[in-house]
Specification:
By secondary structure, the protein is α+β, with helices and mostly antiparallel strands. Helices cover 33% and strands 28% of the residues.
């Protein structure tokens, strides 16, 4: 094993333990009453978000104090930009579903180096699904190797969309010949594509690094492809850490999916 892969293995082991602890905390509050704040009209944050964020920060940064930190629930002081490696964290992706007791949320964390995710975990504790990946090491679900589908687009595709985009961005018309299913968390959607349960997913609305970074590595290590809707590569831990669009697929149907979404091409 190369020094780099060995280092990734160490970080993946650390990340696995931290994400499992964070997921257990999220699950303990799932379906219970807790304080909720509105960051924006459609983006709530709850006590569990903060609790999981604190657990992840304690475990990951105590063990790797020289790494950077970028989290949805932590103020960004910019110090991450000078770090060789940075943790990119969404304590609970899919908070809206989490608060509605819908098991479509995930703890999503990636480690980024040179703009690319090198270690990733997406954990849905409600469904007992732990997705892990490391650069060059493949992707796994609960310890078992996973791979994207082999669909070529010659038959109906199985597409994932968010409820809001399905309703407001016209997915039923864009993918009228396909089976479109709605799932809340974008990180979880990427993980489901990586696991071969769906052929593709995309978002025509902006996403932050923490929304898609971990899922990006899962999809690529499972044999798939991730880009913007315009086909551009996605680079992480930049300034700002945000992407106008994104798409993930098994690779074989990627260009076809991008073509259907071309009216939304912004980057």
């Amino acid at each position: 094993m190369s020094e780099s892969l060995s280092s990734y293995a160490d970080d993946l082991a650390l990340l696995t333990g931290a994400v499992e602890a964070g997921g257990a905390a999220a699950l303990a509050r799932f379906g219970t009453d807790q304080k909720v704040w509105q960051k924006t009209e459609h983006h709530p944050v709850c006590e569990a978000d903060h609790e999981v964020d604190a657990i992840l920060h304690e475990q990951l940064m105590t063990a790797r104090p020289d790494y950077g930190w970028l989290s949805e629930e932590t103020a960004d002081d910019g110090s991450r930009l000078t770090c060789k490696r940075t943790w990119v964290v969404d304590p609970i992706d899919g908070t809206n579903s989490y608060l509605k007791n819908i098991p479509e949320f995930a703890v999503s964390v990636a480690l980024v180096e040179n703009g690319k995710p090198v270690v990733a975990a997406v954990f849905n504790p409600a469904n007992e699904e732990l997705f892990l990946a490391s650069l060059g090491g493949g992707a796994r679900l609960n310890g078992n190797p996973i791979a994207v589908t082999e669909a070529t687009g010659e038959t109906d595709l199985h597409i994932l969309a968010s409820r809001s985009e399905h309703r407001e961005a016209g997915w039923p018309e864009l993918f009228s010949s396909c089976t479109v299913r709605t799932v809340s968390s974008i990180a979880y959607k990427f993980a489901l594509v990586a696991a071969g349960r769906f052929d593709a997913t995309a978002s025509v609305w902006p996403k932050s690094d923490w929304d898609i970074c971990a899922g990006h590595l899962l999809v690529e290590e499972a044999g798939g492809r991730v880009t913007s809707i315009g086909g551009a590569p996605l680079i992480y831990n930049g300034e700002p850490p945000r992407h106008r669009t994104c798409a993930a697929s098994n690779g074989r149907v990627h260009d076809s999916v991008l073509a259907r979404l071309s009216d939304f091409h912004k980057a």
